Amino acid sequence: MSAGTFTPKPGAAPLARMIGAQAALETRMLLRNGEQLLLTVIIPAMLLVLFATVDVIDTGAGEPVDFLAPGALALAVMSTAFTGQAIATGFDRRYGVLKRLGASPLPRWGLMAAKTLSVLVTEVLQVALLTAIALALGWSPHGNPLAVAVLLLLGTAAFSGLGLLMAGTLKAEATLAAANLVFLLLLVGGGVAVPLDKFPGAVRSVLELLPVSALSEGLRDVLQHGAGLPWEQLGLLAGWSVLGLGLAGRHFRWE
Question: Where are the domains of the chain?
Answer without folding.
Answer: 15-251
